[in-house]
Amino acid sequence: MLQADRSIEWERESQSIRNNVAKAELLSSSAPLVSKTENLVVVSLNQVPLPKICFSELTLRIMRVYTLLMPSSPSFQACRTCACSALRHASRAVTQHYERHFRGSGLRATQFTILATLAQTGPLSISELSAKLGLERTTLSRNLRLLENKGWVCAIAHRDQRMRRMELTPKGRKKAVAALPVWKRADAGAETVLRRFGLQSRPVRPPLRSK
After folding, report:
1. For the chain, which residues make up each domain, given as ranges?
2. Is 159 helix (H, G, I), strand (E, B) or coil?
3. Alpha-carbon Rg of the chain, whole angstroms?
4. Is the peptide bond between 181 and the residue preceding it cis, with omega within 30 degrees of 0?
5. Using CA atoms, how far apart are residues 2 and 44, in angstroms rounded to an integer?
């Protein structure tokens, strides 16, 4: 008896689903808005707005989605010329330009800049070197660790034991001298990259103190 009741209930549910599918298909003039599954009616949302339909809750949800997809306020259009964003794009392009030239030299462009700076200034603390290069301390420390492992820079004693001063080693100077022609070729083509972003002249770095 119980099995018979379940069969009757399942038949009623199936018939209800078939009726809903038939009604929805009649409302579609081009492509069907629904797809049939074993026991589920799936309504496609990519063909909104829908014809007038009795699914009021579904209609409200579609209206909310349509509202969320509306174009943003015109007041934000000025952000398209954001100087910060434009310079970030330019900086990334220039960095990639230099890195392409340094490929195969055993140095990254940032690492060469560290060696070249220490060659001009002599020993510097990490804070001083970070300020002169415009690099975050974490980025600088990571690069210095790699250069130190290769024997190109070394830490020297300082009266304040909490402070590390980094110095270019003879091996590091030799490496910087060997990479200097690579940097010159990269630097010669940098202005072409800058002009793509509307920058007519190269930025000027703060002066470095002599040794």
Report:
1. 14-67, 103-195
2. coil
3. 33
4. no
5. 37
pTM over 0.85: no
Q: What is the mean pLDDT of each run of 10 residues along the chain (211 residues)?
A: 57 64 53 44 46 51 55 74 86 92 93 95 92 90 94 85 86 96 93 85 69 52
> In angstroms, rounded to a whole number, what is the distance separating the alpha carbons of residues 96 and 193?
10
Amino acid symbol at 59 = T
Q: Which amino acid is at 36?
A: K
Q: Could you tell me which CATH class the domain 103-195 is placed in?
A: mainly alpha
For 102-155, the pLDDT digits (tens) are: 999 999 999 999 999 999 999 999 999 999 998 899 999 999 999 999 999 999
Query: What torsion, rounded to 10 degrees, do the Cα atoms 120, 126, 127, 132 define?
Result: 30
Q: Give buried/exposed letters for 99-121 (b at 16+ CB in 10 A, else e).
A: eebbeebebbbbbbbbbbbbeeb
To which residue do tokens 């069969």 refer? 7
Backbone angles phi, psi at 27, to 5 degrees: -80, -10
